[in-house]
From TrEMBL:
Domain DDH stretches: 21-165
Gene3D superfamilies for this protein: 3.10.310.30, inorganic pyrophosphatase (n-terminal core)
InterPro entries recorded: DDH_dom, DHH_sf, DHHA1_dom, Oligoribo/pAp-PDE_c-di-AMP_PDE
One of the Pfam families matching this protein, by short name: DHHA1
Protein name (database record): Bifunctional oligoribonuclease/PAP phosphatase NrnA
Domain DHHA1: 243-322
Length: 328
């Protein structure tokens, strides 16, 4: 049974009443970010609305298969103002990856998200922290539209985009956020011609040799603290040496957690000097959101992130170890 039907119906009715939309999401795009964005973009475009997909960030190589050139816009491409913004998978207003001038002059902001730390920055919102992914919420919204208006809307493109976000946010159905509804959704998308093989090959089977070299280097330097906390570090120097883009190393993250006896995995990524990105993953009892919040971040209980600025990698490491020990 779909939760929050009133909120879903309000968003559907708003979309039907209005004509100009911009779809966007959070910085550092991932599968759920891009998958949900493209799905809602295709849905609204199919209704005959004026809609653009805008994201002021680079796309990971393994997700570019979802993108058509016509929908890859940046804020500089948007000359007018006053559209409705649909912000997907953005747990905080500050993480919405679009120019502030466009945000501030928006007619309305619609928030569709599943993060616990969502600030509820919108009058129109569909926030379900129990959902596996934002793609699951977009799927529910489109299914509700189909039910109300007795129309089949989910195309192969929409189905493939939604399937991408579902399997990336559930770790291909491994993570604790995987529910019965996740499998029901996957089965339905398969009947709608979601290209499962294309998704699997691009997400899990297309890493470059350079990626595996930096993976090997980072794993050789992995450390375990007090048998419960593991840390993997990728520095900017390592990225340059291996000629790997910063946006293409997120697949390393689970290795920090997937060690026997380890409860908390920390993946430290140096994006630039003084800018340290951190991914946190836990297995059973550590609430990653509490650690992330200590550094201005957020996310989910078992998967969160944050950015630490104006410190070195070693300083960030010490800060994270000290905070993490409070929760072990």
């Amino acid at each position: 049974m779909i939760r929050f039907l009133d909120e879903i119906d309000k968003i559907i009715d708003y979309i039907l009443r209005n004509d100009r939309f911009i779809v966007t999401s959070h910085i550092n795009p991932d599968g759920d970010n891009i998958g949900s964005s493209i799905a809602i973009y295709e849905f609204i475009a199919g209704l005959g609305k004026d809609v653009k997909y805008v994201l002021d960030d680079d796309y990971p190589t393994n997700l570019k298969f979802l993108l058509d050139e016509k929908i890859k816009n940046k804020s500089n491409d948007i000359l007018d103002r006053g559209q409705t913004i649909i912000a997907l998978d953005s747990g905080d207003y500050s993480r919405i990856c679009i120019d502030n001038d466009i945000l501030e002059k928006a007619t309305e902001i619609i928030c569709i998200d599943h993060h616990m730390t969502n600030g509820e920055y919108s009058n129109y919102k569909y926030i379900d922290t129990k959902a596996s992914s934002t793609c699951e919420l977009v799927y529910n919204l489109i299914k509700r539209y189909e039910e109300r208006f007795e129309k089949m809307i989910i195309s192969e493109k929409i189905a493939t985009s939604l399937y991408t976000g579902l399997i990336t946010d559930t770790g291909n159905f491994q993570y604790s956020n995987t529910e019965v509804s996740s499998f029901i959704m996957a089965a339905d998308l398969m009947t709608r011609n979601a290209d499962k093989n294309k998704v699997i090959q691009n997400i899990f089977q297309s890493n470059t040799l350079k990626f595996y070299k930096i993976l090997g280097e980072s794993l050789s330097k992995m450390e375990v603290i007090d048998e419960k906390i593991s840390i993997i570090i990728v520095t900017n120097e390592m990225l340059l040496k291996n000629q790997v883009a910063y946006d293409d190393i997120d697949a390393i993250t689970p290795y920090s957690r997937d060690i026997e006896g380890v409860e908390l995995g920390i993946f430290i990524k140096e994006k630039s000097v003084g800018e340290i990105k951190v991914s946190l993953r836990s297995k059973n009892y550590v609430d990653c959101t509490k650690i992330a919040k200590a550094f201005g971040g957020g996310g989910h209980i078992r998967a969160s992130g944050c950015t630490i600025t104006d410190v070195s990698v070693d300083e960030a490491r010490e800060m994270l170890i000290a905070e993490s020990k409070k929760h072990i």
